[in-house]
Amino acid sequence: MSITEPMPGETLPPGAGAGADVEPTNVLLPGHDVPLGRYTTVRRLLPQRQLRTVGAWCFVDHFGPDDVANRPGMGIGPHPHTGLQTVTWLVHGEIRHLDSLGSDQLIRPGQLNVMTSGHGIAHSEYSPPEHPPTLHGLQLWVALPDSARSGPPGFAHHAELPVLTEPDYSVTVLVGELGGVRSPAVVHSPLLGAQLWLPDGGAARLPLAANFEHGLLVMSGAAEVGGVTLTPGALLYLGAGRRELAVEATGPTRLMLLGGEPFDESLVMWWNFVGRSHEEIAEARAAWAAGDPRFGRVRGDDSEPLPAPAMPTTRLKSRDRLGRTVG
């Protein structure tokens, strides 16, 4: 997963996303397709040019559902990360995670992988040789706040997650808390990630934290929220100030709700690194290219590490959460 290409964007209405005290909004932000590894194409929904983060969520890739019955499936060789957490969620399929800490973990639908890069980590992700015929899921990044981004790396696998069950729908809480149900996943800023599943369509009403901003995406099916029809391939930015979310679906629909307190730290995001300055990113890239022990080597993976792309000819700029240049 990397960020080097230009990002699409849609102008947000005045005031939208400017802080936790703004009025709620409904802004549909189309994603764009990005090739991932040799065999997978993802729909990148975040960052957008004029909306870089939702809470501390700074990266959202939706992949599948893809028919991988006679294909290798996911194949992403050893690559580095800094300044972020990766959050992996599957609806269909299996992915094997390997990293420089020695983690070797197969993730299946309904389970959660959270990897914390801190100052530096390397990992790889593959579909096992014998894998289910369909691959479908999300890869998300969480920007680490300054207080945590230079800390040690870590990895956690959660085989079971708490579920809020209602007659017509269920909510699996990946990160944070919703409706009195709290995830065991450790994050470093106030955050929410929750899957809403309406197996027969119908309506759902979810309580929200008014001091959070939220975004919503459809993984399968279609839903209507505030008069906006949402289908796979777009992110609906909901702004902040909401205390409730009402969703209506005409058939089986799976959605992911993302939220958090607006992330006020400006970021430089390039390739697989999240930093604060051009110099910091350039240093991380040089360390990876030199095989610096900062990242270690992915244990159990003898394939060649992915080479870092060349640094851009212009200086990387630090941007705030709405894409405005800082400094």
UniProtKB/TrEMBL annotation:
Domain Pirin N-terminal: 41-142
Database matches in CDD domains: cupin_pirin_C (cd02247), cupin_pirin_N (cd02909)
Biased composition (Basic and acidic residues): 317-327
Residues annotated as domain Pirin C-terminal: 198-291
InterPro entries: Pirin, Pirin_C_dom, Pirin_N_dom, RmlC-like_jellyroll, RmlC_Cupin_sf
Annotated segments matching region Disordered: 1-23, 294-327
Similarity annotation: Belongs to the pirin family.
Protein name, UniProt field: Pirin family protein
